[in-house]
Structure formats: structure tokens, C-alpha cells
Specification:
By secondary structure, this protein is of the alpha/beta class. The chain is 37% helix and 17% strand. The protein folds into two domains: 186 residues, Rossmann fold (3-Layer(aba) Sandwich); 137 residues, 3-Layer(aba) Sandwich (Rossmann fold), CATH 3.40.50.460. It is built from eleven helices and 13 strands. Helix 6 runs parallel beside helix 11. It is elongated.
Length: 369
């Protein structure tokens, strides 16, 4: 799906349709990873580099620590040899940060200067909603030729069925729930598992279904803690003494249920979440008398080696992003739709968060206590 509008190239290689396969006419292609880390970032970088170097003879420049590296001109060379052994490796060899161009008065101007000085023809931006929103704005302002790759364990980017990192996080959370079942059963306890999910509950919903959670609480559906307690009592009255309650970190009680502290705001404008699991666990124990413990999985969800699914998806995204660059199709994001990788406008991709599908939520609720 080609993006609309004229292609603007600021330096050496004017793009007039698809690029030749002549390896003597390669481009200088920049790559960055921004926002929170997640499994698969190195696999995506590897996909870009392999396609760009082998098929097009490109020279690839990696910008360190997301947009900070572009603002400050902090780079490292990338080639096939540099990416050897990184497919199963978590994190990102480029580093990442939540710095964005508008945190500094001259941030955008410095980006333009860096891209000109480094003779960068196009930039592949691998990131989540915040990073890709910056890319969309820079593209709209004519600052750079950009192609986006959707990354976030939250799976909250619109216009794509799946962001990479999500399935690995679901696998990690599901394994943790499986383990907690056994200790809950041994001690007749309620176990509350707090998982990531700032504004959406994809991880909680998928892992709750896969792990056989008793109840799942997500940001999209405000909860009444008394209803949760009553459901657990009914379950225990039937002789089921062990229960697992999965809580997304962004879950919020319904008005009139319980009062929770307003979250603090960090320097990047994000709410500092965490702690809802402990609040829910305390309320359950007080209202039911059942011994209740809380486990906060935290950053373990986004660490370590990517799953096989994410390795394939990352590789596919990386190759597809490079193909878009050489088609001169900028201002787009590669996306998964109907088992195919397609191109969608960046503005559409970051226009709104992707919420948990109501039909899937109905499936999850079928198994609630």
C-alpha cells in the first residue's frame, strides 16, 4: 500500500521508483531502536541489514539509544558480520531510550543536521507508539525519509494484528502462571499476578486464557473489587481453594469500588504504574479471608530470548521495511494483516491504541469464576 505524497530526499540518492539491484548503487540506510526494549529487536535489525547489504549493496548505519543517537550523531556501523549470533539474543545491540526530538528546543534541527552529515538516505525506525509517533511527525514535516517497524510487548499499535515481542511476553507470563498454580494449590492461596499493560490488556488477556486464570483485570474494563471477592468466595465454596487473578498494571477500579493513588508522571510524560496488584491482593484478603499473595513479573516479561514466532515476524518485518525503502515508499509502517506483511500509513498506525477485541474478552470471561 504505497504512501501518498511526493517523495522527498535530502541528499545523495534521489529516489525515482524502485532502486536498481546494482550493488554499486547502494544507499546509506540508518536504523534505530527506540522506547522500551523487547525480545526480537536484534532479529529485526538483522533482517534489515541482511536484505539491505546482500540484495542492494547498502551501507547501514546504526544510531545508538534511539532518537538520542540521531540527535547527537552517535552511531555504529552495521553489516552482516556484526549481526552474527544476534537472532536469539534479547535486548538491542543499538541500545534504546525514550528520548525524543521535542525534548530539546533544537532537537529536530539537530536530527536534520545529523542525517545530512552522515549522508543518510532513509531511516528505518523500530519502535512502539511513542517512537513511531515521532517518526510520523518527522515524516509529515519533511525532515526525513522514514519507514516504521512496530515493536512493543503491549501489542497496542493500531493497523497491525501483531507487534513483535508480544508473543514472547505472553509465553513468559503463561509459564509464570503455570508455576504459580502449583504453589497456590499447595497452600490453598489466591495468587495475584501483576503483568505489563499500561493502557491495554492484551498480555493479561492472552496469558490469562492460556494459563487458566480464575479472573483477569484489564484497563479496558474497570473492575469492582467486591465482585472479584464474591466470585472467589463462590469458587471456594465449590471446593476450589486455589485461584489465580491476573491484573494488568494499568487496570483501574470502577467508580465507587476502591480508591487508588493517582500515578506520578515521569520526565517523558508517562504515568509511573505498578502497585495495583498489591492493592487488589490486599482487598481480596480483607474481603474474603483467603490468604492472598502477589507476584509482580515486571521487566522479566520483556527480557531474554525471543520466541520462534517473534524471530520469524521480526525477520519478516526487517526485510519488508528494507523493501519499502528501496521502493521509495516512505511515511509507512510495515504491518501484519491476514498472515501477510503489508504497508500502512504511519499516521494511521499511531492514530489510536489497539484495544483488546471484545470477542476475545468474551472468551476470557467464559472461564472466570
Amino acid at each position: 500500500m504505497p504512501s501518498t505524497g511526493a517523495i522527498r530526499v535530502h541528499n545523495r540518492h534521489p529516489l525515482q521508483g524502485p532502486q536498481t539491484e546494482d550493488k554499486g548503487c547502494g544507499m546509506r540506510l540508518g536504523v534505530l531502536t527506540g522506547g522500551g526494549d523487547c525480545p526480537g529487536l536484534n532479529a529485526a535489525i538483522r533482517g534489515v541489514v541482511r536484505k539491505a547489504e546482500r540484495d542492494h549493496g547498502d551501507e547501514i548505519v546504526g544510531f545508538l539509544d534511539g532518537w538520542r543517537g540521531v540527535i547527537e550523531g552517535d552511531t555504529m556501523p552495521l553489516d552482516i558480520s556484526a549481526l552474527r549470533g544476534t537472532l536469539p539474543r534479547g535486548g538491542t545491540i543499538l541500545g534504546t531510550s525514550r528520548v525524543h526530538p521535542w525534548m530539546q528546543d533544537d532537537g529536530v534541527e539537530r536530527i536534520e543536521r545529523t542525517l545530512a552529515e552522515k549522508e543518510i538516505d532513509a531511516l528505518v525506525v523500530i519502535g512502539g507508539e511513542g517512537t513511531l509517533s515521532c517518526a510520523s511527525r518527522l515524516h509529515d514535516d519533511g525532515v526525513a525519509n522514514l519507514v516504521g517497524v512496530p515493536k512493543t510487548i503491549d501489542n497496542d499499535i493500531g493497523a497491525t494484528e501483531m507487534t513483535f515481542g508480544f508473543m514472547t511476553a505472553v509465553d513468559i507470563v503463561t509459564e509464570a502462571i503455570d508455576r504459580l498454580h502449583t504453589t497456590a494449590e499447595s497452600h490453598d492461596r489466591v495468587m495475584v499476578v501483576e503483568v505489563m499493560g499500561r493502557h491495554v490488556g492484551h498480555i493479561a488477556t492472552w496469558a490469562g486464557i492460556a494459563g487458566g486464570a480464575t479472573i483477569t483485570l484489564i484497563p479496558e474494563e474497570p473492575f469492582d473489587v467486591q465482585e472479584v471477592a464474591d466470585a472467589l468466595r463462590r469458587r471456594h465454596a465449590r471446593g476450589r481453594f486455589a485461584s489465580i487473578v491476573v491484573v494488568a498494571e494499568g487496570a483501574r477500579p470502577a467508580p465507587g469500588s476502591i480508591v487508588v493513588p493517582e500515578p506520578e508522571i515521569d520526565v517523558y510524560g508517562h504515568e509511573v504504574l505498578g502497585g495495583i496488584g498489591s492493592i487488589v491482593a490486599r482487598e481480596i484478603e480483607q474481603r474474603t479471608g483467603f490468604e492472598t499473595r502477589v507476584t509482580v513479573l515486571g521487566h522479566v516479561q520483556r527480557g531474554g530470548t525471543p520466541s520462534a514466532f517473534d524471530r520469524v515476524l521480526c525477520t519478516w518485518y526487517g526485510v519488508a521495511a528494507t523493501e519499502a525503502v528501496h521502493d521509495g515508499d516512505f511515511g509507512i509502517m510495515v504491518a501484519l494483516r491476514d498472515a501477510k506483511v503489508v504497508r500502512v500509513p504511519l499516521a494511521q498506525a499511531v492514530g489510536e491504541l489497539k484495544l483488546v477485541e471484545p470477542d476475545l474478552w468474551k472468551v476470557a470471561k467464559t472461564f472466570f469464576a
